[in-house]
């Protein structure tokens, strides 16, 4: 093979010398592997020549009966001695204990130590822009929240729906070497061929469509390295009868323990022709043995047979990710708690374990989705996607995750169109309403989705210190703004700022129109003291118009604090002002000289006061008109009553006349027939 199968993420020369030879990063491992290669050299043609169809059929017996017959198992071939590295090789590199970093705390694992001197340096290093392994840790710090990292990996599985994926599994497994917990994420999508595996392990390569969730080619690295120090990836890809199998190891532990000066990723690739039955490896032999030796020492698996069994479990196509050496929290416990709930994965330390000691309303509040999603992966995954095809399921620890639409929980919902401030975007629908547990729960905010993926859950756009806006929840799909790389926030652009402002307005408008339905009362302005009823001001004393909170309309009152303005401009309250005025009127010993208190309202206050006076006048006029309308309504109601009475009288008169007509008709009939009328 011309391409090096240890991916050097620092290399800028894929076709040069570094790409045509194996890179030996551990001298004892490489030498042992090479010695074994020399020993078995006489058998190499037999190992890699095309095999008969009967051998392929025999190997299929080692597979799960649920797998399609077109897929082939390779673990059985190793038992027959058809590949060069096996259990009987006697490698010193396949340690029974999986090595781990001295520091297992994520936020401390990236400390730079200038005392570390790399053991291995690349020849002709001047031709490389080196990326130190510590960059893996720095890159992963974009995820402040562990569940955000898991969501990144699930996004890749959801993007595979277009390639036939029907499920993604998230589960806890045990590390075969030390029995420590490891995280499994597996899907049955199209899988990755060797080139796609290289791109996955590299930075910035993404060939996904514009409709996919992932766009930056960085989510796999940030997500896996945020959850654990090491990850091994297995993938099967079937194309035109050719089945490729790839294994890649991204081990922060390996690179730091061997003190490498750059990021390297050992990979091995296999190929099976389902038509001819031929089987072989895609690496050249030297690269294959070197990379496989590194995997067997630093991965959870001690033999190639175990590695290929993992591929057999995938099926015809799909990807399996195993993250091990999981990070600890500050309490030196695993950050991910697998024991609190056997059907869930929780964040240790954030679990609300003392619910029984809480009052009923506190329990209701703590059990709400808005609070539980912070520490329960099952709750978070239930609202992570706005909609998914019915054929696709998320399986968490053996149980299907029931998807939940937040909009279904809203009472008194309304649907408001929002037109983004860009010409090429159509209007989007915002669903807004009261959460169904309101007003008992203290939950509010907007849930913003991007391409059906939840970015901001219960985003609080207004201050909820007062009751106004309490319990108002909204759901919005905002594809017109771009999320940040960790998909936990949006880029702070002008479009985002305008959306935030409009959502604030929506919250106030909805609350003001519907708060009475929950028993709240609107804050109505208190009656104001008419200006003409104030006592006359003494000579040389200017009375400032001081405004209390009730003077303002509610929307203005939330943004401007009259108390702070009073402190800045030295304004006086009306009650204090009247008291001081009375003291000036009844005092005979103190004159109105320059030592008297004098305040002057600034021009800004005067403009606001004039506007307030104008509002009071308008309010008085409107009140007068309301009285007129009420009087007119009373008159109309009285007239309606009179008309109804006249209609009733007319009906009685009509019935009387109708009876008389019937009686006359009866008498006329008796006269004609000559019969006497009935008594």
Automatic annotation (TrEMBL):
This is Morc S5 domain-containing protein. It is found in: Nucleus. Residues 375-511 form the Morc S5 domain. Pfam families: HATPase_c_3, Morc6_S5. It comes from Arachis hypogaea (Peanut). GO terms for biological process: chromatin organization; DNA repair; positive regulation of defense response; regulatory ncRNA-mediated gene silencing. Its main location: nucleus. Keywords: ATP-binding, Chromatin regulator, Coiled coil, DNA damage, DNA repair, Endonuclease, Hydrolase, Nuclease, Nucleotide-binding, Nucleus, RNA-binding, RNA-mediated gene silencing. Residues 1-73 are annotated as: Disordered. Belongs to the MORC ATPase protein family. Residues 33-42, 53-73 have a biased composition (Polar residues). Its cofactor is Mn(2+). Residues 633-660 form a coiled coil. GO terms for cellular component: nucleus. The keyword Cell cycle does not apply. It comes from the Eukaryota. Residues 43-52 have a biased composition (Basic residues). One of its GO terms (molecular function) is ATP hydrolysis activity. InterPro entries: HATPase_C_sf (IPR036890), MORC_ATPase (IPR045261), Morc_S5 (IPR041006).
């Amino acid at each position: 093979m011309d391409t090096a199968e240890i991916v050097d993420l620092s290399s800028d020369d894929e076709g040069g010398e570094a790409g045509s030879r194996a890179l030996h990063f551990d001298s004892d491992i490489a030498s042992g592997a090479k010695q074994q290669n020399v020993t078995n050299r006489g058998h190499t043609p037999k190992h890699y020549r095309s095999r008969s169809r009967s051998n392929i059929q025999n190997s299929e017996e080692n597979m799960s009966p649920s797998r399609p017959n077109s897929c082939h198992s390779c673990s059985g071939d190793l038992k027959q001695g058809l590949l060069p590295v096996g259990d009987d090789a006697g490698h010193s590199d396949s340690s029974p204990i999986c090595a781990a970093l001295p520091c297992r705390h994520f936020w401390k694992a990236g400390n730079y130590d200038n005392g570390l001197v790399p053991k291995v340096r690349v020849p002709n290093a001047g031709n490389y822009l080196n990326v130190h392994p510590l960059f893996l840790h720095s890159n992963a710090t974009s995820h402040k929240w562990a569940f955000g990292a898991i969501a990144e990996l699930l996004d890749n599985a959801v993007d595979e729906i277009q390639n036939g994926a029907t499920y993604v599994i998230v589960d806890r497994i045990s590390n075969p070497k030390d029995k420590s917990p490891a995280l499994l994420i597996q899907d049955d999508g199209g899988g990755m061929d060797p080139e796609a595996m290289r791109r996955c392990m590299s930075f910035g390569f993404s060939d996904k469509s514009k409709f996919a969730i992932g766009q930056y080619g960085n989510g796999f690295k940030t997500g896996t390295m945020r959850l654990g120090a090491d990850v091994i990836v297995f993938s099967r890809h079937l194309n035109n009868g050719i089945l490729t199998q790839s294994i890649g190891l991204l081990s922060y532990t390996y690179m730091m323990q061997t003190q490498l000066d750059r990021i390297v990723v050992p990979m091995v690739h296999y190929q099976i022709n389902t038509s001819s039955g031929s089987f072989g490896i895609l690496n050249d032999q030297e690269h294959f043995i070197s990379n496989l030796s590194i995997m067997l020492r630093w991965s959870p698996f001690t033999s190639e047979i175990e590695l290929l069994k993992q591929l057999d479990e995938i099926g015809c196509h799909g990807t399996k990710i195993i993250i091990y050496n999981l990070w600890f929290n500050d309490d030196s416990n695993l950050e991910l708690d697998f024991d609190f709930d056997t059907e869930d994965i929780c964040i240790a330390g954030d679990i609300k374990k003392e619910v029984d000691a809480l009052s009923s309303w506190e329990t209701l509040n703590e059990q709400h989705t808005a609070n539980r999603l912070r520490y329960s992966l099952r709750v978070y995954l239930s609202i992570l996607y706005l909609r998914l095809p019915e054929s696709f399921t998320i399986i968490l620890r053996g149980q299907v995750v029931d998807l939940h639409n937040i909009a279904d929980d809203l009472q008194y919902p309304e649907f408001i169109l929002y037109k983004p401030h860009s010409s090429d975007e159509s209007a989007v629908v915002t669903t807004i309403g009261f959460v169904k547990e309101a007003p008992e729960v203290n939950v509010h905010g907007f849930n913003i989705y991007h391409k059906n993926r939840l970015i901001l859950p219960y985003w609080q756009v207004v201050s909820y210190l007062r009751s106004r806006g309490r319990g108002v929840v909204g759901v919005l799909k905002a594809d017109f703004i771009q999320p940040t790389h960790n998909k936990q926030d949006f880029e702070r652009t002008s479009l985002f700022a305008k959306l935030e402002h409009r959502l604030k307005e929506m919250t106030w408008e909805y609350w003001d129109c519907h708060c009475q339905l929950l028993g709240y009362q609107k804050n109505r302005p208190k009656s104001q003291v008419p200006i003409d009823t104030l006592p006359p001001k003494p000579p040389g004393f200017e009375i400032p118009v001081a405004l209390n909170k009730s003077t303002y309309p509610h929307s203005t009152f939330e943004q401007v604090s009259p108390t702070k303005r009073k402190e800045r401009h030295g304004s006086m309250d009306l009650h204090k002002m009247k008291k001081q005025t009375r003291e000036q009127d009844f005092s005979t010993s103190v004159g109105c000289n320059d030592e008297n208190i004098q305040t002057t309202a600034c021009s800004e206050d005067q403009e606001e006061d004039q506007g307030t006076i104008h509002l009071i006048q308008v309010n008085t006029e409107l009140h007068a008109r309301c009285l007129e309308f009420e009087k007119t309504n009373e008159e109309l109601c009285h007239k309606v009553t009179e008309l109804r009475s006249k209609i009733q009288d007319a009906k009685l008169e009509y019935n009387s006349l109708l009876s008389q007509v019937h009686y006359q008709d009866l008498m006329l009939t008796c006269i004609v027939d000559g019969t006497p009328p009935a008594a």
